[in-house]
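Reply to dn_fold:

You asked what the input looked like. This is it:
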Amino acid sequence: MAPMAIDPVIVDVVQPKKDTLNLPVESRKRLEKAGIDLSNGYPYRPAKPLYLQDVQKIRDTYREHIDPGARADRSKNALFSAAEKVIDLTAHIGTEIVGLQLKDLTDEQKDELGLLIAERSVVFFRDQNISPQQQKSLGEWYGEIEVHPQVPQVPGVSGVTVIWPDLQATENKANFRNPGGASRWHTDLVHERQPAGVTHLHNDTVPTIGGDTLWASGYSAYEKLSPDFRKIIDGKKAVYRSAHPYLDRENPTAGAKYLERIHPLVRVHPATGWKALWVNRAMTVKIVGLDKAESDLILGYLYDVFEKNIDIQLRFRWTPRTSALWDNRITIHNASWDYEGTQPRHGTRVTALAEVPFFTQDAPTRRQALGLANDE
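and this is what came back:
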């Protein structure tokens, strides 16, 4: 049977190519242990939408979202007391938890993990024994699982996408000057009506050298701005676009177009109540209400604040079977391709969609809330 579109609103499709790339050994073992059927090839690719008008209809209705972190015990005692160690990796972003298996967390611990991710932006768990099915089940705790209309998926487990740079390289050739994978600062799924909240990436195979991932804090990027500059961008909205282009059904010869949405430039996290800068160089198009030259100037500066302040960033060294859970509402991230495809890297990713982005003028910054902003 030919692959189908992910949603019946998609009318016109392009059938995907058949992949023949050999799976890394440890990745295959994990998938076979989980009972994933690999007999029809790997990964599964849904039929790709051809027209922008169809893609616009996907998930284009309001869905209530209640953030689990908002109902968690602020002390996070159930989570922390069960762990062997809780290690903050930098002052502003990133925590590693040692001695817990994600698949075994209680509901109370899942809520507290949601709050920890909201506070620390990204949380890591090494040596995880977790199947794609269990990864999806955990993701469902944090929101509706995003099923992408065209990216590769684990066969039979809708919503678990495959992150495999070698596979990407079969479509978009990469080299040292033009790196492959996700080697650019970005935030996932900003074009959605209700964009991404928590993403869980589990890497079962990683290079022995290189392949690190970097994250930068939206809380801290906003706090780097002067109080007067914050007033300029508070309440402003921007245009955000999809990563993938489509054709316009009404004018198919006009070339590729991206799905665009308008969201706040500064948003507030529902679990912490803190303000965060929410822009990324790859997919923020322009600030609404400004001329292009004005918008480009301000956005260029905001990108630089994120990307050039190393004290608000984290660079994480992967080991096999490590899971990272981060919050797309308060971070940008960038995957280093310094290993240049010389060794395999393979993982599975689940993303939970969150609330409609919102801004509240009187919301505090992280440093204000924690009593750290007395000298600013």
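Residues 292-308 form the longest helix (17 residues).
Hope that clears it up.
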